[in-house]
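Researcher: Please translate sequence to structure tokens.
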Amino acid sequence: MKFRAEIDIMPQDALLDPQGKAVSSALKNIGLSEINEVRIGRHIRLLIESADKESAQAKVEEACKKMLANQIMETYHFTIENY
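Model: Translation complete:
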């Protein structure tokens, strides 16, 4: 079976986000001062071939922990659907 995983990786709330601060400041400069607390992260889409959804989830979890996310500085969340 084929599955598609959508993964969102964000800096942990306790850490500074220099990119988010820069975008927040730029938004104020163009007249969008109502937008605050900008955080910049990453979105990753994967296609997985696996016997079932549970094993696909395990593979995505392993990929996130071992390579895609730095668990000291980032959090991640993913969804999996049939492809």
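Researcher: Any highlights?
Model: Residues 53-68 form the longest helix (16 residues).
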